[in-house]
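User: Hello! My lab partner asked me to get a predicted holo structure for this protein. The small molecule is adenosine-5'-triphosphate, SMILES included with the sequence. Please write out the structure tokens.
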Amino acid sequence: MQGSWGLRYTSPMRVVIHGLTKEFMTGKGKIRALAGVNLEVRDREFFGVVGPTGCGKTTLLHIVAGLEKPTQGKIEFIGEKRTQAMVSMVFQDAALMPWRNVERNVPLGPEFREQPAPAYKRAAHFFLEMVRLLDFRSAHPAELSGGMKQKVAIARALANDPEVVLMDEPFASLDAQTRLLLREELLGIWEKDKKTIILVTHNIEEAVMLCDRVAVLSAAPGVVRDIIIVDVPRPRNFKSMSDPDFIRCLEKIWDLLRYEVDRAMRQNHPSGVDSRDKEGPRKPYVDWWD
Ligand SMILES: Nc1ncnc2c1ncn2[C@@H]1O[C@H](COP(=O)(O)OP(=O)(O)OP(=O)(O)O)[C@@H](O)[C@H]1O
Ligand SMILES: [Mg+2]
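Assistant: Hello! Below are the structure tokens for the protein in complex with adenosine-5'-triphosphate.
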């Protein structure tokens, strides 16, 4: 639609997740990874997902990315597509092609779409500059630190020009200081090139620092326990972590999560039937946490 000042108006793109369930058939029987996840991620939102190990976070991202099919439910992208691709994914371990240098690892999306070489080379330069790695464009992945590899993976995801970037614990394999630095860099990149991001992390401080809202998933099989609004002012940086709103938000998430983490630890079979399901409702968690 053409606006009165010649501007192009597009309807914002939302990701709507309806009643998503996922069961895997394995040699040991059926594993329920997700048990009915409902979520709506807004346009250009930085959306976090936290939950105990094995609760289905990676499975959820894989389904949104189209890498897995749900058993039930569906994903809808509602709104006008403004970009070249629907989703890009950043994995925990960068997953770069070791035989290609940095500059040739970044523009995989445009290259696979058979865009002309000068266009995807320009895209590679633009995004390598954004993650401040242009000087390393000729290096191969083996010559880079873990943090640098993750930045290449972020540049690659952005160069694909997606509506939504999915990040599965992108900094989990990094040391604590590099993690802090990359968090701030990712915030800076997002401020410049606001994409919708869905970030899975085990680090709730990271979730609060980066996200607009954070979904807390239950122990396996995962459902959404609650969605916490992160009302910490932006721009955020290291100092935001001592802001009382930041701490309040951290506590809110942890209050929900620690119950679910404990529940996951008590389940001997991470994605099987929770003992609570057999025994009826457990007492409210405040009874035994506070
Ligand atoms: N391809 C698969 N085949 C069989 N089972 C699977 C498969 N992928 C995941 N699962 C099972 O589904 C459940 C959820 O796994 P998933 O990797 O999504 O959890 P997660 O929340 O990402 O865990 P973590 O926090 O440890 O990364 C687990 O019990 C896992 O063993
Ligand atoms: Mg995972």
